[in-house]
């Protein structure tokens, strides 16, 4: 592909490497409740064994492949960056989305930590604007860094006058 | 409790429920708190500043409930009577109706008793709730819209419902219900007074003192009603109604029998043709009536102090006042039907106006009217719109649409072929299906070309202009100062065609407005020009075709 015009440069930072483990756990948690009951039933119910173990094997294979490969790929693809003026993220590969929220229009900065996330020492920072479609999520930052970032963002946005609409 | 009976208060009842444990705990700790509360309520009821709702609401409620119970009772009476006798049926249904009416009216009386509102310096306050007490207080400067409406019964008693909206569109639980306060009902004069007072503060920032009429309704505009999508829906509803009615009388299959009889006598094609004509005529009459009811005597005014006011309605009189400060743009909407008659509709993009609810017509400033009228109204609301041509989108955007049409045609063809393979069909139905399928496929192709022709974007003065769509063509004029972020997306298919979608997020209206399938490179320059400075730090310009794509994660960009 020849690139001759203006284009978006990717945001500077990758997410924390621990995200790979976190995403893997999530995918595993998603796959297990499907595979285990199927497998257990397959072992117990003899007449239907083929029709229970076969889907279990298929789901397990896909799930395992996804668990191994996808998080590594996501870690490469997802990017984030915060400048003095804006929050900038890039997510997705097949459906790439760049989000830019200017500092002056940010209304709230939330930090959330799920149970699995906490085990990996990670946090999510959600930056919302007055638009329902304008939220920017930074999923998978180091917990301490996230807290510092959220404080910094809150301080920066607090200095901007107006109601950000 | 009141929350179950009065829809307008439902939200407040539910929202207030969350506060209850807290209050209950306090009440048990401090026994004399309850006595104090009773005192303060008595004080509130005697305080001349605290105003009650209008007593005539009781009559309206009683009549409405009786009417509702009656219309529900008729099929019940018919049903019970067919099984037993008329006397028994009436003996059951009449007392039930009376009881229901009395109960609902009694609840309404309680609601009226406990609901009080007042306007103080800078705030509008309301006390409500029978079991779950609720006090709400709105800062006047936060009030963005005042909506008066009155259905025929309310009008007969000289009453209106007043809905006060704030600009808050915040996320989070229950926020949508927290934003508006409903006074159901007050006297018409009181409603007008509230409307004027609640939005009065803005008189200071504007020199104009005279009311200015922006558009006036012409009766001939109802003719655009039948061209709306409501026409087939209303006709379908009528057909459904006929079946329902015959079902009540225990003859559910009757309409089918009649049609079968007609087909035997006149042949399928003639009956089919007449059926289609009857369907269209019924739908047209229905949508004509709906359009007339909703927009009869429509007026758009600019009031002193920068408020827009829309008044309309034949049976239900509606009035919406909208603070102009909260307007972030307009949308000229041309659905395919009214576009074929060179007409359009004007919608407003405003903060705090719930436009995403299905069937909401609150955002409509001017209903379907000739294009010139709409353009003039748009210019009157937003200032000159400019007449620069929109920038078209790359040819590949058309390729993309034609591919979609191809997929649709393929799916239709497959379904038709499968249907013929699986079932043996009479010649009549087979020809009908093939003809309809062919028309659909051709239609899909035409829509693809037409949708491509619609695509365009431009910067005109203070607006970002974006046009798209064929079935619902819409031209958005979004205030550039109202853009509060970008969401830029590119699917793998778009990437191969060199296209990109630019979505401007805003606090108003739907929350985001897109320029779809634009050139992947020039659209970024466009975005950069639309909101200077926001996107620039993240852009890189590659002038030479040979430039290497090497901007890695950690290598700082030249900017």
TrEMBL record, chain A:
In terms of domain of life, where is this protein from?
A: Bacteria
Q: Which residues form the YdbS-like PH domain?
A: 76-152
- Any transmembrane segments, and where? 21-45, 51-74
Which keywords belong to this entry? Membrane, Transmembrane, Transmembrane helix
Protein name, UniProt field: YdbS-like PH domain-containing protein
Source organism (scientific name): Micromonospora polyrhachis
From TrEMBL, chain B:
Q: Where are the transmembrane segments?
A: 60-83, 89-110, 227-249, 269-290, 404-423, 429-449
- Start and end residues of each YdbS-like PH domain: 113-194, 453-516
InterPro entries xref list: YdbS-like_PH
| Spans annotated as Disordered | 20-41
Q: Which UniProt keywords apply?
A: Membrane, Transmembrane, Transmembrane helix
**Which superkingdom does the taxonomy of this entry point to?**
Bacteria
User: What protein name does the entry list?
Assistant: Putative membrane protein
Organism encoding this protein: Micromonospora polyrhachis
């Amino acid at each position: 592909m020849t690139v001759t015009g203006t284009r978006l440069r990717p945001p500077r930072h990758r997410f924390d490497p621990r995200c790979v483990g976190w995403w893997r756990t999530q995918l595993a948690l998603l796959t297990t409740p499907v595979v285990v009951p199927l497998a257990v039933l397959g072992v117990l119910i003899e007449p239907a064994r083929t029709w229970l173990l076969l889907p279990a094997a298929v789901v397990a294979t896909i799930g395992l492949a996804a668990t191994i490969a996808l998080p590594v790929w996501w870690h490469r693809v997802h990017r984030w960056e915060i400048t003095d003026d804006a929050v900038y993220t890039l997510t997705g590969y097949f459906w790439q989305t760049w989000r830019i929220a200017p500092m002056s229009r940010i209304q709230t900065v939330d930090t959330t930590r799920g149970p699995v996330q906490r085990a990996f020492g990670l946090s999510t920072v959600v930056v919302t604007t007055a638009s329902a479609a304008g939220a920017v999520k930074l999923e998978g930052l180091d917990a301490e860094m996230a807290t510092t970032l959220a404080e910094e963002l809150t301080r920066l946005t607090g200095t901007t006058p107006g109601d950000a609409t | 409790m009141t929350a179950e009976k009065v829809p307008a208060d439902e939200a407040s009842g539910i929202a207030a429920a969350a506060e209850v444990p807290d209050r209950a705990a306090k009440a048990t700790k401090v026994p004399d708190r309850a006595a104090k509360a009773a005192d303060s309520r008595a004080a509130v009821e005697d305080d001349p500043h605290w105003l009650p709702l209008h007593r005539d609401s009781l009559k309206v409620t009683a009549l409405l409930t009786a009417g509702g119970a009656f219309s529900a009772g008729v099929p019940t009476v018919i049903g019970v009577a067919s099984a037993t006798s008329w006397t028994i049926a009436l003996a059951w249904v009449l007392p039930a109706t009376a009881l229901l009416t009395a109960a609902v009216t009694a609840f309404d009386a309680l609601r009226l008793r406990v609901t009080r509102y007042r306007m103080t310096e800078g705030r509008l306050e309301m006390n409500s709730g029978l079991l779950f007490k609720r006090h709400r207080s709105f800062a006047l400067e936060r009030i963005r819209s005042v909506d008066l409406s009155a259905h025929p019964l309310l009008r007969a008693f000289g009453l209106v419902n007043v809905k006060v909206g704030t600009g808050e569109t915040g996320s989070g639980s229950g926020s949508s219900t927290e934003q508006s306060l409903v006074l159901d009902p007050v006297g018409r004069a009181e409603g007008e007074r509230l409307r004027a007072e609640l939005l009065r503060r803005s008189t200071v920032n504007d020199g104009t003192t005279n009311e200015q009429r922006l558009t006036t309704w012409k009766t001939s505009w109802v003719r655009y009603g039948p061209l709306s999508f409501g026409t087939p829906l209303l006709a379908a509803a009528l057909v459904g109604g006929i079946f329902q009615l015959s079902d009540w009388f225990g003859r559910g299959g009757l309409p089918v029998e009649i049609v079968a009889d007609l087909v035997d006598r006149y042949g399928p094609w003639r009956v089919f043709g007449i059926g289609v004509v009857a369907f269209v005529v019924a739908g047209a009459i229905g949508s004509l009536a709906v359009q007339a009811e909703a927009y009869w005597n429509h007026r758009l005014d600019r009031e002193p102090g920068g408020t827009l006011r829309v008044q309309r309605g034949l049976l239900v009189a509606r009035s919406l006042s909208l603070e102009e400060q909260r307007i972030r743009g307009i949308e000229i909407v041309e659905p395919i039907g009214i576009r074929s008659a060179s007409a359009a509709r004007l919608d407003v993009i405003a903060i705090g106006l719930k436009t995403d609810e299905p069937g909401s017509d609150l955002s409509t400033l001017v209903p379907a009217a000739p294009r010139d009228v709409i353009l003039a109204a748009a210019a009157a609301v937003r200032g000159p719109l400019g007449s620069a041509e929109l920038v078209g989108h790359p040819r590949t955007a058309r390729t993309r649409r034609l591919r979609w049409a191809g997929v649709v045609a393929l799916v239709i063809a497959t379904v038709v072929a499968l249907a013929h393979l699986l079932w043996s069909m009479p010649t009549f139905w087979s020809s009908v299906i093939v003809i309809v399928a062919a028309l659909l496929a051709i239609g899909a192709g035409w829509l693809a070309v037409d949708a491509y022709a619609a695509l365009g974007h431009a910067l005109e003065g203070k607006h970002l202009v974006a046009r798209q769509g064929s079935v619902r063509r819409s031209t958005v004029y979004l205030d550039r100062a109202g853009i509060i972020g970008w969401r830029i997306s590119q699917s793998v298919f778009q990437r191969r065609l060199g296209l990109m979608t630019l979505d401007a997020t805003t606090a108003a209206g739907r929350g985001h407005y897109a320029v779809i399938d634009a050139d992947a490179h020039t659209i970024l320059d466009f975005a950069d020009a639309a909101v200077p400075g926001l996107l620039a730090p993240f852009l890189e310009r590659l002038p030479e075709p040979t430039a290497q794509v090497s901007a890695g994660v950690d290598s700082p960009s030249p900017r």
